[in-house]
Here is the input.
Amino acid sequence: MLTGSEKEIKKAADKAGLDISSLEIKNADGIFDMETAPTEIMKSGRGTSLGVGLDALASGEGDAFVSAGSTGAVLVGGTLIVKRIKGIKRPALAAVMPSSDKPFILLDSGANAECTEKMLTQFAYLGSLYMEKIMDVPSPRVALANIGVERTKGTPLYVETYELLENDEKINFVGNIEARDIPFGRADVVVADGFTGNMIIKMYEGVAKSLTNEIKSVFMKNALSKLSYLGVKSGMDEFKEKMNYKKYGGAPLVGTRKCIIKAHGSSDAYAFKNAIGQAVKYVESGFTDIVAKSLRESKEE
Amino acid sequence: MLTGSEKEIKKAADKAGLDISSLEIKNADGIFDMETAPTEIMKSGRGTSLGVGLDALASGEGDAFVSAGSTGAVLVGGTLIVKRIKGIKRPALAAVMPSSDKPFILLDSGANAECTEKMLTQFAYLGSLYMEKIMDVPSPRVALANIGVERTKGTPLYVETYELLENDEKINFVGNIEARDIPFGRADVVVADGFTGNMIIKMYEGVAKSLTNEIKSVFMKNALSKLSYLGVKSGMDEFKEKMNYKKYGGAPLVGTRKCIIKAHGSSDAYAFKNAIGQAVKYVESGFTDIVAKSLRESKEE
Here is the structure.
């Protein structure tokens, strides 16, 4: 099912020579641009592709929703229209990221600037379950992003969260992880409050971009350096593919009653295809049911 | 003046063929290793090179102190032995970092995991003054590390700090900076609480190290790729030099009554020479007097 301006969707499909006659289109003429306040999704934004899509998801017309639209609006709409799983304090935005080893998940990567230790503990569980069920990692290593490995490091929030995670039998807690170890993939799940998580993901992006630019200009320097590129091209291509986050799809908003995937704003067809595949796997894994059941049980205990 | 085991210092100088007869040596036989709790600097650590050096500095036997020892002990000793400038809430550790443009300073890079908006405002002023007086940057651009550029972004601490900085006539505040823009040098001074600042600096270090390793292995792949390295060697060397943080010396602990420079634990002779040069410039600039005078004036206002 596609949501958005039916006219524009058909025009785009025609242009690309695609037959989309088997897909249902839910017309939505409203426009939700990056300048619109995220909370408008509950009011003036209801008639946009985002609003119509989230409403359709909430009312059971679909199993998952994939969007590359405004992150803030997806968060607000996901939480208020699709709603949280009972017992979940706040949904978290989880980013699947490449490392020099295997990919890992970082959550919260920006949905909640302020967190409590209970929220961080839920994020740890949600991230662990995601890596196990959707990324096929058995017994994922869960680490808490912190400024030192010792249990006494960081703010009181982090010291208390460490204690809760250590005693949580549902996860494989491996302790604190310093930011310098994050790019090496020393944990499968990295837990942080949304402010810190957002800093981590954007530093990763910024430093990688800055260094890639520098390396590029080294190769562009002169005729000899350009020629040299040919000798490392296959290795460079492998490296680029390893670091290509688009293959992992988008960032799932975990903790909502149904699957919501926030695709990167710069998603191309390849990234979208992978985000949709990720949504299929998410739904087929029974992720939300497992979370709901686990929360019911821990409440009964 | 050198502090440490006189016997060991003389042995090392002999080995290196150095004449250190013009230097005063303050003997200190105690050992402060990385496992010792930083607060021990006030007790059992007083007889170490760190303790003896900070005591000498505090009592006026020197103008500046440079050490590559335990960061925690330098922070505690700097604050409690050398003491804060009157009116300074908490000293901050400032890291001078390379960018794809000019170097910038990040503070607090780890001294205070928890901060107030008043502390962050002082850090902004101290960083700005440092860049102006010691790094020769006129009217340094001061930015607040945040998860978005809008003034409403981040935790209440960051929203309130934004407002204070905006109204601070002593600095050139350019607004929030997102982490992805930090490596591009879009600010001369980046202000953050010590938890966030530590995450930023260590992500920078980690991502740079991880990507450098990847690029290295691309060149080491086979005979052709090794040969190709020769064609980009000069460009790669320039790139390495640009990113070499050792040329900036160490991280000053700003806000103490006298100059204290924390050199990186892995400092070599080149890094130490630069840290000492940095200390000379710090002292000659009259940095601490300017700060003290400015704080007295703003109190009188």
Notes: Chain B touches chain A through 59 residues (CB under 8 Å). The longest strand of chain B covers residues 172-177. Residues 194-219 of chain B form the longest helix (26 residues).
